[in-house]
Design goal:
Elements lengths: L17 H28 L7 H6 L17 H14 L1 H21 L2 H12 L5 E4 L15 E5 L2 E12 L6 E8 L5 E8 L5 E5 L11 E12 L3 E6 L2 H35 L1 E2 L3 E2 L4 H29 L5 H25 L11 H13 L4 H13 L6
The structure holds 3-thiaglutaryl-CoA (TGC) and flavin-adenine dinucleotide.
Length: 392
């Protein structure tokens, strides 16, 4: 099989270092050789390929920008390229790694005590532990500040009551980072590390998804669940703490979706060159088809340049949450539109899982919604440029 070549229309690869290109190549090979062969079956069976999890640890894919604690300590652009390759396989594979790195390891690293870091980060990096992140609730999605989950300070710890919904990796996780308002501390939002098996903590898998089928999505239930004080994240309080984690995850998503878009574009291009229609001429020889392919190249190329600049800003410590909102919104939209157009170009074959396009298209509907919907990111940027918040 020929090695995969991603779109490099404006030579955006020349903006990457040798080391970054090497990281990309190693993850690209891993996805081609180990991940892609499992996807068709996993998608049909609505299951996550658990057999890959140890390899994520061995490859340094988890928490890879964290320094120390057994993590790879990579730069942010290298990390972005990793997520791009993973999502070229499937958004569910990238989701697993995003959640573990940005939503579980990051809060422990940024808001945890040194003891918590030492206890959890090396095992999470090696994939000996799996984590999930519980912020969203049945009645609080776009507005996490409206959460109903409550913690009450009790002797020696906190008692948690409430429900979380739409939680990636929820029922396969060994630990959950759970956000709750602490009633007897002025309703302040706090994060807790809740271990699987803690009395009063249960999970249930959500079934019947038409999107992200290669990913476990669950509900988390807390009923008088008492966690020791040592499980509270001491250095992060208020909504700002979970939102800070979202900024990390959204960064990875803005890169990752380019991989899904790239896979759809290349599938459509190859198909259009082969598929003969009307006068035995390839589909690619028709102006309407070329216009669709050109639009894909145009949008993916702009998205690549945006992602690289976002990464360089992050490496210089200049990246702001509203920059990430712009990139997440833009790149998810271009990926979704690319996937929809590619599906159209494949005609009837566009709905068959023999081609990756319909799977990517359905996945990207979720990716455009989670980590802040397109509307929410538009409002974040709107607030930043006008100074007027319009969420409420
Ligand atoms: P607001 O008053 O604007 O902000 C409260 C405090 O937080 C600060 N802040 C941020 N800090 C870091 N990063 C960000 N992105 C931040 N956004 C806001 C803000 O400066 C303020 O700080 P301070 O010091 O003044 O207290 O809060 P709000 O209640 O008005 O909400 C704003 C809004 C709507 C943008 C926010 O709630 C939001 O982002 N909503 C979207 C929710 C969301 O994205 N949920 C994602 C759940 S996790 C998930 O989907 C995982 S998907 C799995 C996978 O990746 O695979
Ligand atoms: P709602 O907030 O009800 O939004 C419905 C519609 O209203 C949307 O179109 C939205 O854009 C629009 N809307 C909302 N507010 C406004 C406004 N102010 N103005 C105009 N329009 C508005 N969450 C976690 O905590 N952890 C996870 O691991 C996780 N994984 C997920 C995995 C999947 C597969 C999915 C689908 C979701 C996941 N989520 C997770 C939840 C995700 O973050 C939420 O679904 C998302 O934030 C949207 O919330 P909601 O579904 O409640 O939609």
């Amino acid at each position: 099989m020929a090695a995969y070549e991603s779109l490099n229309y404006m030579n955006s690869d020349s903006l990457l270092t040798e080391d970054e290109l090497m990281v990309r190549q190693s993850v690209r090979d891993f996805v081609t050789e180990k991940v892609e062969p499992l996807l068709l079956e996993c998608h049909r069976e609505e299951r996550f390929p658990m057999e890959l999890i140890p390899q994520f640890g061995e490859m340094g894919l988890l928490g890879s920008t964290i320094q120390g604690y057994g993590c790879a300590g990579l730069g942010h652009v290298a990390y972005g390229l990793m997520t791009q390759e993973l999502e070229r396989g499937d958004s569910g594979i990238r989701s697993f790694c995003s959640v573990q790195g940005s939503l579980v390891m990051y809060p422990i690293y940024a808001y945890g005590s040194e003891e918590q870091r030492q206890k959890y980060l090396p095992k999470l990096a090696k994939a000996e532990l799996i984590g999930c992140f519980g912020l969203t609730e049945p009645d609080a999605g776009s507005n996490p500040g409206g959460m109903l989950t409550r913690a009450v300070k009790v002797p020696g710890g906190y008692k948690i009551n409430g429900n979380k919904m739409w939680i990636t990796n929820g029922s396969i996780a060994d630990i959950a980072i759970v956000w709750a308002r602490v009633e007897n501390e002025n309703g302040k939002i706090r994060g807790f590390i809740v271990e699987k098996g803690t009395p009063g903590f249960t999970t249930s898998k959500m079934e019947g998804k038409f999107s992200l089928r290669v990913s476990v999505t669950s509900e988390l239930h807390f009923q008088d669940c008492v966690v020791p004080e040592s499980q509270m994240l001491p250095n992060g309080e208020g909504l700002k703490a979970p939102l800070g984690c979202l900024t990390q995850a959204r960064y990875g998503i803005a890169w990752g979706v380019l991989g899904a878009a790239d896979a759809c574009y290349h599938t459509a291009l190859n198909y259009a060159k082969e598929r003969k229609i009307f006068d035995d001429k390839p589909l690619a020889g028709y102006q309407l088809a070329q216009a669709k392919l050109v639009k894909m190249v145009q949008e993916i190329t702009k998205g690549q340049l945006l992602a690289i600049q976002m990464g360089r800003l992050k490496e210089r410590g200049e990246l702001q949450p509203h920059h990430v909102s712009l990139a997440k919104m833009n790149n998810c939209k271009l990926a979704l539109e690319t996937a929809r157009e590619a599906r159209d170009m494949l005609g009837g074959n566009g709905i068959i899982d023999e081609y990756p396009v319909i799977r990517h298209m359905l996945n990207l509907e979720s990716v455009n919604t989670y980590e802040g919907t397109e509307d929410i990111h538009r409002l974040v940027v709107g607030q930043q440029i006008t100074g007027i918040p319009t969420f409420r």
